[in-house]
Amino acid sequence: MKRIASLGGHGPTFYLAFLASFLFFSSYHLLITPLPLFVESMGGSATDVGLAGTTFAIAALVTRPYMGRLVDTRGRKAALLLGAAVFTLGPLAYVLVGSLLTFQVARMFHGIGMSAFTSAYLTLVADVTPPSRWGSALGLAGVAPSLSIILATPLGTVLLDHTSFTVVFLVSALLALAGFSVVLLIREPRGGDSALSGGERPGVHLLDVAKLRGVISPSLAMATLGFSFGTVAAFLPLFARDRDLGNVGLFFTALSLCIVVSKFGMGRLADKVGRLTIVLPMFAILALSFFGLERSFSFSTLIVVAVIQGVGLGGARVGLETILADAAPARARGTAFSLLYLCFDVGIALSGLIMGKVADLAGYGQGYLLVGAVCLLTLALFGAAMRKPATP
Protein backbone atom coordinates (compact mmCIF):
# COMPACT_ATOMS: atom_id res chain seq x y z
CA MET A 1 0.00 0.00 0.00
CA LYS A 2 2.84 2.39 0.77
CA ARG A 3 4.34 1.64 -2.60
CA ILE A 4 1.06 2.49 -4.32
CA ALA A 5 0.69 5.67 -2.33
CA SER A 6 4.17 6.77 -3.29
CA LEU A 7 3.54 6.31 -7.01
CA GLY A 8 3.47 9.81 -8.42
CA GLY A 9 2.71 11.16 -4.97
CA HIS A 10 -0.90 9.98 -5.11
CA GLY A 11 -2.68 7.34 -3.07
CA PRO A 12 -4.84 4.36 -4.13
CA THR A 13 -8.06 6.43 -3.98
CA PHE A 14 -6.70 8.70 -6.71
CA TYR A 15 -5.73 5.83 -9.00
CA LEU A 16 -9.00 3.93 -8.53
CA ALA A 17 -10.90 7.10 -9.36
CA PHE A 18 -8.63 7.60 -12.38
CA LEU A 19 -9.37 4.07 -13.66
CA ALA A 20 -13.12 4.46 -13.06
CA SER A 21 -13.05 7.74 -14.98
CA PHE A 22 -11.17 6.15 -17.88
CA LEU A 23 -13.77 3.38 -18.18
CA PHE A 24 -16.70 5.78 -17.75
CA PHE A 25 -15.50 8.12 -20.48
CA SER A 26 -14.51 5.22 -22.73
CA SER A 27 -18.18 4.27 -22.68
CA TYR A 28 -19.04 7.82 -23.77
CA HIS A 29 -16.30 8.36 -26.37
CA LEU A 30 -16.91 5.00 -28.01
CA LEU A 31 -20.12 6.57 -29.35
CA ILE A 32 -18.67 9.80 -30.79
CA THR A 33 -18.49 8.57 -34.39
CA PRO A 34 -21.38 6.05 -34.40
CA LEU A 35 -24.07 8.31 -32.88
CA PRO A 36 -24.26 10.93 -35.69
CA LEU A 37 -24.39 8.10 -38.20
CA PHE A 38 -27.05 6.34 -36.12
CA VAL A 39 -29.20 9.47 -36.22
CA GLU A 40 -28.77 9.72 -39.99
CA SER A 41 -29.66 6.03 -40.37
CA MET A 42 -33.02 6.86 -38.79
CA GLY A 43 -33.60 9.67 -41.29
CA GLY A 44 -32.27 12.51 -39.14
CA SER A 45 -30.79 15.78 -40.45
CA ALA A 46 -27.84 17.86 -39.24
CA THR A 47 -30.26 19.61 -36.89
CA ASP A 48 -31.30 16.24 -35.43
CA VAL A 49 -27.64 15.35 -34.89
CA GLY A 50 -27.18 18.62 -33.04
CA LEU A 51 -30.33 17.99 -31.02
CA ALA A 52 -28.88 14.67 -29.82
CA GLY A 53 -26.04 16.59 -28.20
CA THR A 54 -28.40 19.25 -26.92
CA THR A 55 -30.81 16.86 -25.19
CA PHE A 56 -27.90 15.04 -23.55
CA ALA A 57 -26.48 18.33 -22.31
CA ILE A 58 -29.84 19.69 -21.13
CA ALA A 59 -30.41 16.65 -18.92
CA ALA A 60 -26.95 17.05 -17.42
CA LEU A 61 -27.49 20.78 -17.06
CA VAL A 62 -30.83 20.53 -15.25
CA THR A 63 -29.55 17.93 -12.78
CA ARG A 64 -26.19 19.61 -12.05
CA PRO A 65 -27.35 21.60 -8.98
CA TYR A 66 -28.84 18.46 -7.42
CA MET A 67 -25.74 16.40 -8.17
CA GLY A 68 -23.46 19.02 -6.65
CA ARG A 69 -25.53 18.97 -3.48
CA LEU A 70 -25.49 15.15 -3.52
CA VAL A 71 -21.69 15.21 -3.72
CA ASP A 72 -21.38 17.62 -0.77
CA THR A 73 -23.99 15.97 1.46
CA ARG A 74 -23.97 12.25 0.67
CA GLY A 75 -20.41 11.83 -0.54
CA ARG A 76 -18.34 11.65 -3.69
CA LYS A 77 -18.67 7.87 -4.06
CA ALA A 78 -22.48 7.91 -4.12
CA ALA A 79 -22.50 10.29 -7.08
CA LEU A 80 -19.81 8.30 -8.91
CA LEU A 81 -21.87 5.12 -8.53
CA LEU A 82 -25.01 6.84 -9.79
CA GLY A 83 -23.24 8.20 -12.83
CA ALA A 84 -21.69 4.85 -13.77
CA ALA A 85 -25.04 3.06 -13.31
CA VAL A 86 -26.85 5.47 -15.63
CA PHE A 87 -24.07 5.15 -18.21
CA THR A 88 -24.53 1.39 -18.11
CA LEU A 89 -28.27 1.65 -18.82
CA GLY A 90 -28.15 4.54 -21.31
CA PRO A 91 -26.54 2.70 -24.26
CA LEU A 92 -28.85 -0.25 -23.66
CA ALA A 93 -31.78 2.13 -24.17
CA TYR A 94 -30.43 3.05 -27.62
CA VAL A 95 -30.77 -0.59 -28.64
CA LEU A 96 -34.51 -0.40 -27.94
CA VAL A 97 -35.39 2.93 -29.57
CA GLY A 98 -37.54 2.89 -32.69
CA SER A 99 -37.78 6.56 -33.61
CA LEU A 100 -35.91 9.85 -33.37
CA LEU A 101 -38.24 10.93 -30.56
CA THR A 102 -37.54 7.92 -28.34
CA PHE A 103 -33.84 8.25 -29.12
CA GLN A 104 -33.83 11.84 -27.85
CA VAL A 105 -35.58 10.70 -24.65
CA ALA A 106 -32.87 8.06 -24.17
CA ARG A 107 -30.22 10.74 -24.70
CA MET A 108 -31.74 12.82 -21.90
CA PHE A 109 -31.58 9.87 -19.51
CA HIS A 110 -27.98 9.20 -20.53
CA GLY A 111 -27.05 12.81 -19.79
CA ILE A 112 -27.95 12.43 -16.11
CA GLY A 113 -25.02 10.02 -15.73
CA MET A 114 -22.55 12.60 -17.01
CA SER A 115 -23.85 15.13 -14.49
CA ALA A 116 -23.45 12.78 -11.53
CA PHE A 117 -20.02 11.38 -12.34
CA THR A 118 -18.21 14.54 -13.40
CA SER A 119 -19.51 16.56 -10.44
CA ALA A 120 -17.90 14.05 -8.08
CA TYR A 121 -14.71 13.01 -9.86
CA LEU A 122 -12.52 16.12 -9.61
CA THR A 123 -14.04 16.93 -6.22
CA LEU A 124 -12.69 13.63 -4.89
CA VAL A 125 -9.30 14.27 -6.53
CA ALA A 126 -9.07 17.68 -4.83
CA ASP A 127 -10.04 16.08 -1.50
CA VAL A 128 -7.05 13.73 -1.54
CA THR A 129 -4.46 16.24 -2.87
CA PRO A 130 -2.67 19.13 -1.07
CA PRO A 131 -3.77 22.55 -2.44
CA SER A 132 -0.23 23.38 -3.54
CA ARG A 133 -0.41 20.48 -6.02
CA TRP A 134 -3.95 20.91 -7.31
CA GLY A 135 -2.81 22.00 -10.76
CA SER A 136 -0.69 18.88 -11.17
CA ALA A 137 -3.32 16.54 -9.68
CA LEU A 138 -6.26 17.94 -11.63
CA GLY A 139 -4.16 17.88 -14.78
CA LEU A 140 -3.28 14.23 -14.27
CA ALA A 141 -6.88 13.37 -13.34
CA GLY A 142 -8.02 15.03 -16.54
CA VAL A 143 -5.81 12.69 -18.54
CA ALA A 144 -8.25 9.80 -17.94
CA PRO A 145 -11.11 11.14 -20.10
CA SER A 146 -8.66 12.28 -22.77
CA LEU A 147 -6.88 8.93 -22.81
CA SER A 148 -10.23 7.25 -23.33
CA ILE A 149 -10.74 9.24 -26.54
CA ILE A 150 -7.44 7.91 -27.89
CA LEU A 151 -8.56 4.30 -27.48
CA ALA A 152 -12.35 4.34 -27.49
CA THR A 153 -13.07 6.66 -30.42
CA PRO A 154 -11.23 4.62 -33.08
CA LEU A 155 -12.56 1.45 -31.44
CA GLY A 156 -16.10 2.73 -31.96
CA THR A 157 -15.34 3.36 -35.63
CA VAL A 158 -13.82 -0.11 -36.10
CA LEU A 159 -16.69 -1.83 -34.28
CA LEU A 160 -19.26 -0.06 -36.43
CA ASP A 161 -17.38 -0.92 -39.63
CA HIS A 162 -17.31 -4.63 -38.75
CA THR A 163 -20.43 -5.20 -36.63
CA SER A 164 -23.54 -3.10 -35.99
CA PHE A 165 -24.93 -0.24 -33.93
CA THR A 166 -26.31 -2.77 -31.44
CA VAL A 167 -22.87 -4.27 -30.75
CA VAL A 168 -21.37 -0.78 -30.31
CA PHE A 169 -24.05 0.13 -27.76
CA LEU A 170 -23.54 -3.13 -25.83
CA VAL A 171 -19.77 -2.59 -25.62
CA SER A 172 -20.40 0.95 -24.38
CA ALA A 173 -22.65 -0.41 -21.62
CA LEU A 174 -20.06 -3.01 -20.57
CA LEU A 175 -17.35 -0.35 -20.24
CA ALA A 176 -19.58 1.71 -17.94
CA LEU A 177 -20.38 -1.40 -15.89
CA ALA A 178 -16.65 -2.02 -15.44
CA GLY A 179 -16.31 1.57 -14.21
CA PHE A 180 -19.12 0.98 -11.72
CA SER A 181 -17.25 -2.06 -10.36
CA VAL A 182 -14.07 -0.02 -9.85
CA VAL A 183 -15.96 2.72 -7.99
CA LEU A 184 -17.17 0.08 -5.53
CA LEU A 185 -13.52 -0.42 -4.50
CA ILE A 186 -12.96 3.25 -3.62
CA ARG A 187 -12.66 4.10 0.08
CA GLU A 188 -13.76 7.68 0.41
CA PRO A 189 -11.85 9.80 2.97
CA ARG A 190 -13.73 10.60 6.16
CA GLY A 191 -13.91 14.06 7.66
CA GLY A 192 -11.74 16.96 6.53
CA ASP A 193 -12.49 17.97 3.00
CA SER A 194 -14.57 14.99 2.10
CA ALA A 195 -18.28 14.61 2.59
CA LEU A 196 -19.11 12.33 5.49
CA SER A 197 -19.91 8.86 4.24
CA GLY A 198 -22.04 7.95 7.20
CA GLY A 199 -24.73 10.60 6.91
CA GLU A 200 -25.81 13.91 5.54
CA ARG A 201 -24.34 17.27 6.41
CA PRO A 202 -25.55 20.74 5.42
CA GLY A 203 -24.58 21.77 1.89
CA VAL A 204 -24.11 25.16 0.30
CA HIS A 205 -26.56 26.37 -2.33
CA LEU A 206 -25.41 26.87 -5.90
CA LEU A 207 -26.25 30.59 -5.90
CA ASP A 208 -24.08 31.17 -2.82
CA VAL A 209 -21.09 29.56 -4.50
CA ALA A 210 -21.73 31.48 -7.73
CA LYS A 211 -21.13 34.77 -5.91
CA LEU A 212 -17.41 33.96 -5.70
CA ARG A 213 -15.50 35.50 -8.61
CA GLY A 214 -13.04 32.63 -8.60
CA VAL A 215 -15.96 30.28 -9.17
CA ILE A 216 -18.32 32.13 -11.52
CA SER A 217 -15.68 33.54 -13.91
CA PRO A 218 -14.01 30.21 -14.75
CA SER A 219 -17.44 28.58 -14.91
CA LEU A 220 -18.62 31.04 -17.56
CA ALA A 221 -15.36 30.60 -19.47
CA MET A 222 -15.90 26.84 -19.29
CA ALA A 223 -19.11 27.34 -21.30
CA THR A 224 -16.92 28.30 -24.25
CA LEU A 225 -14.97 25.06 -23.91
CA GLY A 226 -18.25 23.15 -23.90
CA PHE A 227 -19.40 25.06 -26.98
CA SER A 228 -16.09 24.30 -28.72
CA PHE A 229 -15.96 20.62 -27.81
CA GLY A 230 -19.65 20.13 -28.62
CA THR A 231 -19.24 21.35 -32.19
CA VAL A 232 -16.31 19.00 -32.73
CA ALA A 233 -17.83 15.93 -31.06
CA ALA A 234 -21.20 16.21 -32.82
CA PHE A 235 -20.31 17.55 -36.25
CA LEU A 236 -16.71 16.76 -37.14
CA PRO A 237 -17.56 13.28 -38.52
CA LEU A 238 -20.01 14.88 -40.95
CA PHE A 239 -17.66 17.80 -41.74
CA ALA A 240 -14.81 15.38 -42.50
CA ARG A 241 -17.04 13.20 -44.65
CA ASP A 242 -18.30 16.15 -46.71
CA ARG A 243 -14.71 17.30 -47.42
CA ASP A 244 -13.37 13.76 -47.78
CA LEU A 245 -10.76 14.34 -45.08
CA GLY A 246 -10.19 10.69 -44.16
CA ASN A 247 -10.55 8.73 -40.93
CA VAL A 248 -11.97 11.20 -38.40
CA GLY A 249 -11.17 8.77 -35.60
CA LEU A 250 -7.49 9.66 -36.05
CA PHE A 251 -8.34 13.33 -35.55
CA PHE A 252 -9.76 12.48 -32.14
CA THR A 253 -6.72 10.33 -31.38
CA ALA A 254 -4.33 13.20 -32.17
CA LEU A 255 -6.58 15.66 -30.32
CA SER A 256 -6.64 13.51 -27.23
CA LEU A 257 -2.90 12.84 -27.19
CA CYS A 258 -2.27 16.57 -27.18
CA ILE A 259 -4.96 17.16 -24.54
CA VAL A 260 -3.23 14.57 -22.34
CA VAL A 261 0.16 16.23 -22.73
CA SER A 262 -1.28 19.73 -22.32
CA LYS A 263 -3.34 18.94 -19.22
CA PHE A 264 -0.45 17.28 -17.46
CA GLY A 265 2.16 19.82 -18.50
CA MET A 266 0.04 22.95 -18.07
CA GLY A 267 -1.33 21.72 -14.75
CA ARG A 268 2.18 21.39 -13.35
CA LEU A 269 3.12 24.76 -14.83
CA ALA A 270 0.05 26.41 -13.32
CA ASP A 271 1.29 25.42 -9.85
CA LYS A 272 4.54 27.25 -10.57
CA VAL A 273 3.67 30.37 -12.62
CA GLY A 274 0.00 30.95 -11.81
CA ARG A 275 -3.32 29.89 -13.26
CA LEU A 276 -4.19 32.97 -15.33
CA THR A 277 -0.78 32.95 -17.01
CA ILE A 278 -1.72 29.57 -18.45
CA VAL A 279 -5.41 30.04 -19.25
CA LEU A 280 -5.35 33.16 -21.44
CA PRO A 281 -2.84 31.94 -24.08
CA MET A 282 -4.74 28.64 -24.26
CA PHE A 283 -7.91 30.40 -25.43
CA ALA A 284 -5.90 32.16 -28.16
CA ILE A 285 -4.51 28.80 -29.30
CA LEU A 286 -8.00 27.29 -29.24
CA ALA A 287 -9.34 30.11 -31.44
CA LEU A 288 -6.50 29.54 -33.91
CA SER A 289 -7.40 25.86 -34.17
CA PHE A 290 -10.98 26.60 -35.22
CA PHE A 291 -9.90 29.15 -37.80
CA GLY A 292 -7.57 26.44 -39.10
CA LEU A 293 -10.36 23.87 -39.11
CA GLU A 294 -12.39 26.02 -41.49
CA ARG A 295 -9.39 25.99 -43.87
CA SER A 296 -8.85 22.22 -43.66
CA PHE A 297 -9.11 20.49 -47.03
CA SER A 298 -6.68 17.62 -46.47
CA PHE A 299 -6.06 14.93 -43.88
CA SER A 300 -2.64 16.35 -42.97
CA THR A 301 -4.11 19.78 -42.25
CA LEU A 302 -6.83 18.17 -40.15
CA ILE A 303 -4.23 16.45 -37.97
CA VAL A 304 -2.25 19.68 -37.49
CA VAL A 305 -5.47 21.36 -36.36
CA ALA A 306 -6.10 18.48 -33.94
CA VAL A 307 -2.68 19.05 -32.36
CA ILE A 308 -3.26 22.79 -31.92
CA GLN A 309 -6.78 22.28 -30.61
CA GLY A 310 -5.66 19.63 -28.13
CA VAL A 311 -3.10 21.97 -26.60
CA GLY A 312 -5.68 24.75 -26.25
CA LEU A 313 -8.47 22.61 -24.87
CA GLY A 314 -6.31 20.73 -22.38
CA GLY A 315 -4.46 23.75 -21.02
CA ALA A 316 -7.54 25.97 -20.76
CA ARG A 317 -9.56 23.29 -19.01
CA VAL A 318 -7.06 22.38 -16.29
CA GLY A 319 -6.36 26.07 -15.69
CA LEU A 320 -10.03 26.87 -15.17
CA GLU A 321 -10.53 23.83 -12.93
CA THR A 322 -7.60 24.83 -10.75
CA ILE A 323 -8.75 28.45 -10.43
CA LEU A 324 -12.10 27.15 -9.20
CA ALA A 325 -10.54 24.66 -6.77
CA ASP A 326 -8.48 27.52 -5.31
CA ALA A 327 -11.57 29.66 -4.70
CA ALA A 328 -14.21 27.13 -3.58
CA PRO A 329 -14.55 26.32 0.16
CA ALA A 330 -14.03 22.64 0.91
CA ARG A 331 -17.59 22.09 2.17
CA ALA A 332 -18.97 23.42 -1.14
CA ARG A 333 -16.40 21.99 -3.53
CA GLY A 334 -18.84 19.56 -5.11
CA THR A 335 -21.35 22.34 -5.66
CA ALA A 336 -18.66 24.55 -7.20
CA PHE A 337 -17.53 21.85 -9.61
CA SER A 338 -21.17 21.15 -10.50
CA LEU A 339 -21.52 24.82 -11.50
CA LEU A 340 -18.34 24.59 -13.58
CA TYR A 341 -19.71 21.63 -15.53
CA LEU A 342 -23.22 23.04 -15.62
CA CYS A 343 -21.72 25.85 -17.70
CA PHE A 344 -19.83 23.30 -19.78
CA ASP A 345 -23.17 21.58 -20.45
CA VAL A 346 -24.75 24.90 -21.42
CA GLY A 347 -21.97 25.35 -23.96
CA ILE A 348 -22.58 21.90 -25.41
CA ALA A 349 -26.32 22.51 -25.56
CA LEU A 350 -25.82 25.78 -27.41
CA SER A 351 -23.30 24.19 -29.75
CA GLY A 352 -25.83 21.65 -30.96
CA LEU A 353 -28.52 24.23 -31.61
CA ILE A 354 -26.33 26.95 -33.10
CA MET A 355 -23.93 24.79 -35.11
CA GLY A 356 -26.78 22.67 -36.47
CA LYS A 357 -28.58 25.76 -37.78
CA VAL A 358 -25.41 27.37 -39.15
CA ALA A 359 -24.46 24.10 -40.87
CA ASP A 360 -27.87 23.81 -42.51
CA LEU A 361 -27.71 27.43 -43.73
CA ALA A 362 -24.02 28.09 -44.52
CA GLY A 363 -22.02 24.90 -43.97
CA TYR A 364 -19.83 23.51 -41.20
CA GLY A 365 -16.83 25.67 -42.11
CA GLN A 366 -18.64 28.91 -41.34
CA GLY A 367 -19.79 27.40 -38.06
CA TYR A 368 -16.20 26.72 -37.01
CA LEU A 369 -15.25 30.33 -37.81
CA LEU A 370 -17.96 31.37 -35.37
CA VAL A 371 -16.50 29.09 -32.69
CA GLY A 372 -13.07 30.68 -33.12
CA ALA A 373 -14.55 34.15 -32.67
CA VAL A 374 -16.31 33.06 -29.47
CA CYS A 375 -12.97 31.79 -28.08
CA LEU A 376 -11.33 35.18 -28.69
CA LEU A 377 -14.23 37.01 -27.05
CA THR A 378 -13.96 34.72 -24.01
CA LEU A 379 -10.23 35.41 -23.73
CA ALA A 380 -10.87 39.16 -23.56
CA LEU A 381 -13.80 39.00 -21.12
CA PHE A 382 -12.28 36.41 -18.78
CA GLY A 383 -8.94 38.21 -18.66
CA ALA A 384 -10.67 41.49 -17.79
CA ALA A 385 -12.84 39.88 -15.12
CA MET A 386 -10.00 38.09 -13.33
CA ARG A 387 -7.65 41.07 -13.39
CA LYS A 388 -10.24 43.47 -12.02
CA PRO A 389 -9.66 44.14 -8.28
CA ALA A 390 -11.98 42.08 -6.08
CA THR A 391 -14.89 43.88 -4.51
CA PRO A 392 -14.34 44.19 -0.72
Task: Describe this structure as you would to a colleague.
- By secondary structure, the chain is mainly α.
- It has one domain (8-190, 204-387): Up-down Bundle (Growth Hormone, Chain: A), CATH 1.20.1250.20.
- The chain is built from 16 helices and no strands.
- The protein has helices at 2-6, 12-29, 34-41, 46-74, 76-96, 100-127, 134-141, 143-162, 165-184, 206-210, 213-242, 248-273, 275-294, 299-327, 333-362, 364-387.
- The longest helix has 30 residues, at 213-242.
- The chain is globular.
- It starts with a helix and ends in a 5-residue tail after the last helix.
- Mean pLDDT is 85; it is low at 1-8 and 192-201.
Largest sheet: none
Mean pLDDT: 85
Report the radius of gyration as a whole number of Å.
Answer: 20 Å
CATH class: Mainly Alpha
Question: What would a concise description of this structure say?
Answer:
This protein is an all-alpha fold. Helices cover 82% and strands 0% of the residues.
Strands, helices and their partners?
Elements: H1 2-6, H2 12-29, H3 34-41, H4 46-74, H5 76-96, H6 100-127, H7 134-141, H8 143-162, H9 165-184, H10 206-210, H11 213-242, H12 248-273, H13 275-294, H14 299-327, H15 333-362, H16 364-387
Helix pairs in contact: 2-6, 2-8, 2-9, 3-4, 4-5, 4-6, 4-11, 4-15, 5-6, 5-9, 6-15, 7-12, 7-14, 8-12, 11-14, 11-15, 11-16, 12-13, 12-14, 13-14, 13-16, 15-16
